[in-house]
């Protein structure tokens, strides 16, 4: 789970699980979207069943979406809260886009059925290190930037640690709240009250603790498997008298992967 805090009582809006629960309130979710997209007038939003997550087949990586909504114009918005910079968000946004598209189009339908969609990450850290509050990416022709691909996909990274005067006061107030700063903004006050109410929900608390334990168990299993693989590799290197490689695989992850492949260790 994308969060630094694990104690339920200490959680705030920057926790991905709690953010997803608070955004189940359509009024609060609609207001946030209108702050991100001030030129859009959204009449209503709906929550498809994708909220529970996407898994296209047994071998695919599971996706648990924070907020997945569709507005009255059939525009799709996936909003994700990211408390830590995992160094993989751009690639993850690409993966999310692909998974969303798979859900939007049924087998046999034309690609014209794909809705306009936005993948939005709300980050506590500036992953692009340019001081902006907002980074918007669309597919533009490299040779002629006046040409848009027209695939109607947009990826947006909001940065709560922005320094520029590049967004509205309303959106900045929300980002300041995400960053833990105090603000007198009315919407932020409503959000804060919703967070307090959400933390009183025993069912959500139990769900959060269950997910947390599952994530910790998966991490421990992964670490144990990694140690077992490395142990097998070192045994093989000792057998082949490759002492220099033993030192190298413990320090260089890329070289370690190369050795796993060479010794066919899965």
- Give the CA-CA distance, first to last residue: 26 Å
Strand order of the largest sheet: 1-2-3-4-6-5
Shape: globular
Cα-atom radius of gyration:
22 Å
Please describe the topology of this protein:
Layout lengths: L15 H7 L3 H11 L8 E2 L20 E5 L4 E7 L6 H16 L12 E7 L10 E4 L15 E7 L9 H10 L7 H13 L3 H38 L3 H9 L1 H10 L4
Parallel strand pairs: 3-4, 4-6
Antiparallel strand pairs: 1-2, 2-3, 5-6
At a glance:
By secondary structure, the protein is α/β, with parallel strands linked by helices.
Outline the structure in words:
The protein is α/β, with parallel strands linked by helices and 266 residues long. 43% of the residues lie in helices and 12% in strands. It has eight helices and six strands. It has a six-stranded mixed β-sheet with strand order 1-2-3-4-6-5, with helices on both faces. The protein is globular. The model has no long low-confidence stretch (mean pLDDT 89).
List the main descriptive attributes of the protein structure presented here:
six-stranded mixed β-sheet, 6 strands, alpha/beta, 266 residues
């Amino acid at each position: 789970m994308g969060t630094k805090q694990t104690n339920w009582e200490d959680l705030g809006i920057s926790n991905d699980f709690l953010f997803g629960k608070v955004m189940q309130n359509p009024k609060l979710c609609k207001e946030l979207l209108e702050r991100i997209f001030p030129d859009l007038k959204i009449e209503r939003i709906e929550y498809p069943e994708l909220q529970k997550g996407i898994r296209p087949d047994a071998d695919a990586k599971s996706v648990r979406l924070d907020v997945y909504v569709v507005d009255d114009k059939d525009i799709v918005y996936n909003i994700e809260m990211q408390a830590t910079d995992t160094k993989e968000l751009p690639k993850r946004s690409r993966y999310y886009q692909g998974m969303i598209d798979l859900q939007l189009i049924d087998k046999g339908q034309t690609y014209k059925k794909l809705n306009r969609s936005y993948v939005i990450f709300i980050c506590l850290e500036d992953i692009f290190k340019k001081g902006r509050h907002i980074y918007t990416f669309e597919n533009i022709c490299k040779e002629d930037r006046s040409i848009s691909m027209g695939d109607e996909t947009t990826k947006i990274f909001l940065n709560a640690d922005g320094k520029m005067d590049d967004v509205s006061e309303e959106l900045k107030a929300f980002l300041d709240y995400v960053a833990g700063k105090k603000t007198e903004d009315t919407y932020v006050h409503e959000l804060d009250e919703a967070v307090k109410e959400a933390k009183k929900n025993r069912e959500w608390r139990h769900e959060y603790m269950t997910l947390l334990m599952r994530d910790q168990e998966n991490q421990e299993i992964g670490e144990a498997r990694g140690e077992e693989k490395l142990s097998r590799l070192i045994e093989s290197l000792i057998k082949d008298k490759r002492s220099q490689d033993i030192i190298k695989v413990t320090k260089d992850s890329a070289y370690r992967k190369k050795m796993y492949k060479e010794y066919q260790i899965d």
